Amino acid sequence: MSFIIIGFYRPPTANDTFYDEFADILKECDHNKEIIIMGDFNLNWEDKSKRRKLKVITDKYHLEQLIKGPTRITKCSSTQLDLFFSNKPERITKTYNLITGLSDHNLTLVARKLTSKRFKINASASRHTNVNCIPKSKQETFDNEINNLDWGDILSSENLENSCQLFTSKINIVRDKHIVKNKRKNKNKVNLPWFSEILWQLMKSKDAALKKAIKTKRDTDILVYKNLRNKVINELRLAKSHFFLKLLNDAKGNSSEIWKSINSLLGRAQHHTEDIQLTVQGQTIDDNAKIASIFNSFFIDSVQRLGNNFKTGEQLTDLNVAGQGFDLVTVTEEEVKKVICSLKNSKSKDVSHQDTVFIKKHSTTLIPPITHLANLSIIQSFFPPHWKQAIVTPIFKSGDRNIVSNYRPISILPVISKIVEKIVIDQLTDHINSCNPGLDSAQFGFTKHHSTETAILHLTEQIRLGLDKGGVVGAVFLDLSKAFDTVNHKVLLSKLSNVNLSSNTLAWISSYLSDRRQCVKIKDADSSYLSHNAFTFYEPKWAPEARCLAFLPSLSGSPVLWGQVFSKADPFFFTHRRSPRLSPDVISHCTSRKKNDDLSMLVLCRSPHSVDNVDRFVHLCHLVQSNSTQKLNHFCSDIFIHFFLFPLIRRHHRCLYLS
């Protein structure tokens, strides 16, 4: 099936040359195909004298005009200016000429017959989704049963793993009693969040007034319509301005929240329910269970292959667990309540069919057992396997949708594990920020009071100082492959051992990192569970801090990294500390590109020997460079001014040190 569609606009001031040009266009068309012509011709088709020249041309090519009635109605005139022609009028099932108030012209619609067969099954499937939910009629009973659960057996138990399973089973028993499978209609949400019911009723009143004014043509009715029209315009502008002001105020300077709202308005939000097909060895696979297994194996194996590039026993140092160090402390119910309230609202179900919305709603009754479980985990230095199971959803990045490598994993972890993670990471962050050695002052990523702005200002200042001293400032641009998935656990523990952590705390972290399992979920199909190895790292709460420690030479006084990776050259333009073990001729900045999960680093060096040191650093941290390439560059005064200071002034700083 093929047809030709031509859109026309004839200005009111057009002369007779329009008809010659119109005829020339029709002459070039393939008249064996269906031809559809539509547009605003600015001539009254109902006036036979004015349409004569146009009708001679359309009749020659067997084109029939199908719109009926005037399409522009004013107080003084009614004219048919918007026309629709077809040489196959039998294929046009219906035409509409609607008064909408959107313009001084009516809205014209045409329905064309596509096929006599109606795909009712597919249409029905696309409009409805099978969901497991608790009906509103049972919601109050469900809430009462959850609030009346007896947690005495958990609060008196010292067996953490059994208590975790019992906690989940108690909730699921109540949940299964009330849950039903329903067909939920997929609603096409209006992408106008500022639009309210009051505005909707006001617009309906305006449209009704317009129809009445056109029908009666009385001055009073026209005046009523114009007043309502102006009121609608003003109310829409006011609603839009209030919406965007609230959006900016709620974001509180968080650019990611602002972009999230903007992408939603522009229709760029990611949809997880799209059908996925994969091409493997020339065969197309559309079975969700097989696709889930392929994704799960790929996400695990791709990282394992990168890990095989490094020797098993190669580490930065042995763990330093001698002596007394920082111990994790137990928490109170009030502290747990604060952590629960800080969780983002999400209805994504974990392996136990729980979500943060449920936990926050029933926090009053759930806080005592959660506090007990968290304290058991801290006291026993043990993170139970029940909290280490993740549901992974593949998210499309870019490129061919049929290629498995063009997807990245997003993990949904147990909600209780997120609470315990938050408790521990808050304690560790406070300790590392206050201890000596701790995080370096030049650590900009994932650190309070630091940002891309402070990083680029610091970077440009170091370049300027180096140039002022008459030196040559060089840069190494690294593009690290799968950096977010390859935080080596041994490297991370090795660095943590140098910040005065006790053996119990290191044991808890080691238990947290080890023996993790994941499955991939595609709609209703799940893959089998596979285990991570020592290289994978999908945990969202720990990920920023772990990358901060594992990727960058950021621990003060750490001879492990600085002594082995960087040379002992004299200071050039940047000095972290005065120490014979340190390498002040190298400074690194890192940033991430979330779209493809790679990590980009910029390293400023004094001499070519520093490039070799960068290679050693990347290798010892078990990182892999994309395509095994480094980009080298050097700066002079002109380059510095044009490529660093000017972009900074224009606030294009976010991409300055991306490779």
From TrEMBL:
Superkingdom of origin: Eukaryota
Alphabetized CDD domains for the sequence: RT_nLTR_like (cd01650)
Pfam families hit by this protein: Exo_endo_phos_2, RVT_1
Domain Reverse transcriptase: start-end pairs: 404-519
Molecular-function annotations in GO: catalytic activity
Start and end residues of each Endonuclease/exonuclease/phosphatase domain: 4-107
UniProt protein name: Reverse transcriptase domain-containing protein
